[in-house]
Write a structure and sequence with these properties.
five-stranded parallel beta sheet; alpha/beta; transferase; 198 residues; Rossmann fold
């Protein structure tokens, strides 16, 4: 992966939707983006697209279910920084761990606005949801294989605690119960946003 500083840029208000695999990050990121008239961007989808296009580094990460590196996250931010409108940008599942927080901070102008939503989901429920996703689309998510999914859940569950601490040191972060109905989760997220965002 290429490296080099992203450099501070003017971005719209950013809402980071965080959580373990299966927590509904993509569903909620898209719903929140629709509700705000903004766009959602997924580092996972971006990485899988790179892997499908033959990028060896991305393919290795996806196949192994390995954590996304800071260099990969920096590359993702470079990819999206010139493609977002003036409305809200909803980050679907990123930053992934505490190493990505300073990468995001470095990419923002001094007045950049960031708000985090942590979708809380028990491990057993996460595993069950991914099993359902595998059965409905067995070839769509190679990182949903049983072994890779288990690694991703374990890695991200451990990383979320450290991520939350690092994130909250810089920006607001709220926790939402992801076991509730999807529409209710979306409503709770929108209601939790700072005044003027929704």
């Amino acid at each position: 992966m290429g490296s080099g500083s992203v450099g501070p840029v003017t971005l719209p208000p950013i809402i980071a939707v965080l959580g373990v695999p299966g927590a509904g990050k993509s569903t909620q990121a898209k719903a929140v983006a629709r509700g705000l008239g903004g766009v959602s961007a997924s580092v996972g989808d971006w990485l899988r697209a790179l892997a499908a296009a033959g990028d060896k580094d991305a393919a290795s990460t996806v196949a192994a279910g390995s954590p996304i590196t800071p260099a990969q996250y920096e590359r993702f931010l470079r990819h999206i920084r010139d493609e977002v409108p003036a409305s809200a940008l909803v980050l679907d599942g990123s930053p992934r761990d505490e190493r990505h927080v300073p990468v995001l901070a470095d990419a923002l102008a001094d007045d950049g606005l960031v708000f985090g939503v942590l979708l809380r989901l028990p491990t057993g429920v996460a595993e069950s949801r991914i099993q359902v996703r595998r059965s409905s689309a067995p070839t769509d998510r190679p990182d949903d294989s049983t072994e890779a999914a288990a690694r991703r859940i374990a890695d991200q569950t451990a990383a979320l605690t450290r991520l939350a601490e690092s994130f909250e040191a810089r920006w607001p972060l709220v926790t939402i119960d992801a076991t509730e109905d999807e529409s209710l989760v979306t409503r709770r997220i929108l209601e939790s946003l700072p005044e003027g965002w929704a």
